[in-house]
Each structure stands twice: as C-alpha cells, then as structure tokens.
Amino acid sequence: MATVTTTLRLGTRASALATTQSQTVADAITAATGVAVELVPISTEGDRSSQAIQQLGGTGVFVAALREALLAGEVDLAVHSYKDLPTAPAPGLILAAVPDREDPRDALVARDGKVLGELPAGATVGTGSPRRIAQLEALGLGLVPVPIRGNVDTRLGKVAAGELDAVVVAAAGLRRLGRIDEATELLDPLQMLPAPAQGALAVECRAGDTALAGLLAEVLDDAHARAAVGAERAVLATLEAGCSAPVGALADVVSDLTDDGRIVDRVLLRAVVGTADGALVRASATGDLDGVEELGAALAAELLDLAGGSYRSDHDASVPHSVRDGRPAPDQELAAVREAASPAPPQIVPSGVDR
Description:
- The chain has helices at 16-33, 45-48, 53-56, 64-71, 130-138, 152-160, 171-176, 210-220, 223-239, 292-307, 331-340; strands at 8-13, 37-42, 77-81, 93-97, 106-110, 124-126, 144-146, 166-170, 185-186, 201-206, 247-257, 263-274, 280-288, 323-324, 327-328, 347-354.
- It is of the alpha/beta class and 355 residues long.
- It folds into three domains: 8-99 and 200-221, D-Maltodextrin-Binding Protein, domain 2 (3-Layer(aba) Sandwich); 106-186, Periplasmic binding protein-like II (D-Maltodextrin-Binding Protein, domain 2), CATH 3.40.190.10; 226-354, Porphobilinogen deaminase, C-terminal domain (Double Stranded RNA Binding Domain).
- A five-stranded mixed beta sheet has the order 2-1-3-10-4, sandwiched between helices.
- A hairpin with a 2-residue loop joins β14 (323-324) and β15 (327-328).
- The chain is globular, with a radius of gyration of 20 Å.
C-alpha cells in the first residue's frame, strides 16, 4: 500500500448530505491507514443560488469550486456525488476511486404514507429533475410535477407543511442521512430509471499525487461500482446530455453463464431518454466488464436511432459530439460510435417508445 504521512485535507460541499458522505470516506481512509483526514467545507455556485440548475449552466455547478481548490493545492482530495460531475475529464485531476455504491433508486416521500399509485390525479410532486418529470408524466397518472430545489430538509419539509403532496429524491441521500424510513416508496427502476451514477461517489485528487491516488484506489475503489457507473456515464457522454437532461441509466453487474459453462461477470445496462414530443425511448444491453464505455456508447447510439429526430438535450451545442441541437448526428457519426464498440458488440434490446 502506498503511504501518506501527513493529515489529508478533504474538500467537500458544506451541506449536511455532502459532509456526511465525505466523512464516510474520511473514516474509511483513517480506518485502513491510520492517516488523519480533515474535512474542508467549500461553497459552490450551486449551493449559493436558488436558481434552477439549467439556469446556472447545468452540469458542474456543484464541483467547479472543489476542483479549483484541488488544483490550487488548498485541499488534497475531494469527494463528489458522481452524478454531479461533467462527463469530460478535468485536466490535472484523476478519478482515484469510486467507493461501494449506495442504493441508486429514487425514493418517494408522500403525505399520509401514500405510494405513487395511490396519489390522486392532480397531486403535486416536487422535483427539479427533467429526468424525473419526464418519467412521472409517462406513467399517465395525472400527477403535477412542481420544480423545487434545496437540501433534503427543505424538500421533505414542503411535504410535511402541506405545500406539496409528495417529493421524489435520491434514496442514497436518505440512507446516508439515516432518514430512509421517511420514504413511503422506493421506486422500481422499471417505473423510473435513476440518473447515471446516482448513489455513487467520486473521489478525485491531483494527477501528480501518485502516492495518494494509489492509496485511495487501494482503500476505497470498488471495481463493480466503477464498471456500472462507467457504463451509465458513457450513455450520458455519447448523448452529450448533462445532469439536467431527461436521461436515465442504470447498470448492474450480473453473473452470466458462457457457452462453455463458465460463470463470468457481465454488465446489464438499461437506459431511457426523453424526446421533444414527450415520449420516452428505452433500450437495454449487456456487455463485458472491460468494455463498459463501448457498451454505453453503443446503447446511446441505439437510443438515438429509436428516437429519430425527436431527441431533446440540454447540451452545449458548441461542442461537437454525437448529438447537436437536439437532433441525431449525421449517419457517419453514429457509425463511428458503433465502430468504437467493436470488436465485441453488446447485445442490445430496444424496448420501444412510451407515449
């Protein structure tokens, strides 16, 4: 194991959830190595503003200040909610570890202990996520999504005060805060696929700190969590959609039996994307652990084919990628995506379009 002899400064957002999950990482490092870890709370743009994430610039508003502190040498490592990270790598930094993943599902917290199917038509459901809104509307229950922002206390407080009939939040946050009993239903991914990387943490350090990077990888990294999240994020990257776009993805590492009778671990990936006309396009794929990025890219290409010209995205159109201006890229670019998935193409199962 690589050695680190000085107290480590861990950069974290200042919210109760962020400091709780960062303290979990700090405690794991100390327990394994004996090295003291000090939390350094850092205010981010997303924490200081009450505007919608899309108005603040989308993906990255919760991580930019942490990354700046890392690069400036003010902290030695940073812990992020992985779903907050932009899909593009950050120059000078390395993703040193993806710890064991918490529950990736969404959770409903509703008045009177109701589950989703018990909410009457017209019931107000608080969420600031276009992904959640698109999937709620696709259920056809007549629910009324209400955009909200704020920490867990703020969101759940709106239900307790009678301002909303329910809210949808990440189950991982409730579990980490010891409040999972307040959820009235854990939403099945068949109803609502979570955001790519939901429930996962990302631990970053400077690329040049090789001893620290090695220590973090050895102590914290979970290979299955990293593979699953890598597949989900590859869908997001290929669609060029940020965390505010209507894209859901969930990967599970499952045991599979090969033709010659061997048991191997493979990745089962499911994804959904919203279209401009309010429909949802779904597909799934399976692939090898060592090809998760190719698996995600190929599944995203299949989603683009299924969506036709109606895919919608909140991406920055100035950056060339697989999707531009809410339309599928030219055929040759989609072909390039598929070619990147060779030589072992995944088994893709299109699930069609929900309207």
